Structures are given as C-alpha cells and as structure tokens.
Amino acid sequence: MKNQMSTDIQDYITRSSLADWEPLIEQGTHYIGVFVKSLRFDQTQQRSTTILLKFEPGSSYPYHNHPAGEELFVLSGSVTIETALLQAGDYLYTPPSFKHEVSSVSGCNLLLVVPEEVEKIPR
C-alpha cells in the first residue's frame, strides 16, 4: 500500500518560535556560539534540509563544501561568507561544490536550505 500524502496543511507547518535553539553539534564537533533549529526534516536523508542558524557575536563555522549547493537568507545581523559581508535582507545562492567558511562579528540569524550534507575541508 502506498503512503498517502496528508491533505491537512497543519501537518506541514513548523512553529519555530515554539522550538528551542539547539547547540550545533555535527559528528561530535560542537561549534561554540552556533545554534540550530530544524524547519524541515527529510526522512529519506535522515537530516534537516531547511534550518535556522543563529551565530552569536564572534562565532564561526569552518571551511566546507556544499556538494548540492546552498541557499542562505540573512534574517538579522550580518555574516561574512568568505570575503563577502551579507546583512539582513541579503540572499546568497552557492552553486554545487562551492566552498567557503562563515563567521559573524556582530551575530546573526540565517535561513538555510542545504539539499545535501556539507563536507568539512581542512585548510
């Protein structure tokens, strides 16, 4: 029997204001000052593909690759992606296999769509 898609819109709403910010921990590494909220969890991949990220002032995320690209929207604050400073309202599309690091001097909140898991790259 095929799984039937729900027709109840309530099944597709994530109330992010009701969720707690969780520390970002990936493969045993805790990224101090970076927090995450899952907006969409992909059951097939067993990972969140749409997330909110919060960077406290002075926090960062290391150099990494996006095998399937990434979409990023700055909700508040400012963030540096490689050498580009993005501020609230800015949108960034990174194509597949695009590599960069992320840091925020003042802190920020970001919306990200990440179709595939990122790959950390030593520098």
Automatic annotation (TrEMBL):
Domain ChrR-like cupin: 12-110
SUPFAM superfamilies documented for this protein: RmlC-like cupins
Gene3D superfamilies for this protein: Jelly Rolls
This protein's name: Cupin domain protein
